[in-house]
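Tyrosine-type recombinase/integrase: structure tokens wanted.
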Amino acid sequence: MQDKEDVRVLALIEEFLTARATRKPSPHTLQAYRRDLLAIAQLIADDPTSPLPLASLPITALTIRALRTAFAAYATPRAAASIYRAWSTWNGFFTFLVADGIAVGNPMSAVDKPNVPVPLPKPLRGEDTPEQLLTAVARDDHRQRHPWSERDLAVLALALCAGLRLSELLGLRVGSLAGRPGERRVEVVGKAGRPRVVPIEPEVDAVLGAYLDSRRRRFGARTVRRDSPLFVDRHGEPLRRGGLQYLVESCYQRAGITDRVPRGARLHALRHTFATRLAEDGASASEIMRLLGHSSLTTSQNYIDVTAGQQRAAVRANRTNRALSGLYRENGA
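Answer:
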């Protein structure tokens, strides 16, 4: 049996990431796992009392004391959500090591983590903002260097009317659109490879059909096979993360609504708008959970709670309520 002093942390990190890859996380998620693991490992390796090259760090160096010290240093310049994410990544890493018999226990329960509140939804601001966005993007803007309104509108339609994440949009194939006319759906692979099916209405189906027709005209019918990526760039190549983010940002600018997009939620604001409108229209938490692919009912319930709070605030601001309050004071006096 290999001595634990000879088992290197870097090698174990690579084994963990390889195992996680079978769950089909997005490349962005895998990169985040790697960053979190390497950042803490580097802090442990840099321990001033006995510094080591990171490549030489053994598994035996991952003591509770070392992990506490490393996480304390890691936490100093970072937000609570980043610290919590790193803690969760290391917790998963040790769970993997215990399952493989490499570690006898998971020390992360002895390492403090911040309490991170459930983040509030960040939909587009303004009652008619989504409609204004779609209307503006549907028109060809010849000020653009390479206008392609059909594609841009298709991206926005799936984000606003199906609530898809950035990684889910990029993962779609032409064959992800399924079902007969009137019963159309999009088959999505969500976080951790979890599949879900989201119904799409005839209006969205028509937008997607117009986009695929425009793509055939641009690049030929062979580029629209079932296994082809659904969204492509102006060269016909698969659209990538940065390209999709730039596309959505340019749509906001064309519609003149950049001031109505919450900070830190550029494309995600479209998904949040979808979920918030579901809650406003009376969808249950379980329905929102299924449609958005949430892993926790708490996340879905949050849209309902926030919507109810906003509705109550709107009622409270009603001038008639204020008039009644004034009458009550007068009569009481």
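The chain has a mean pLDDT of 86. Residues 188 and 196 are 5 Å apart (CA to CA).

Cheers.
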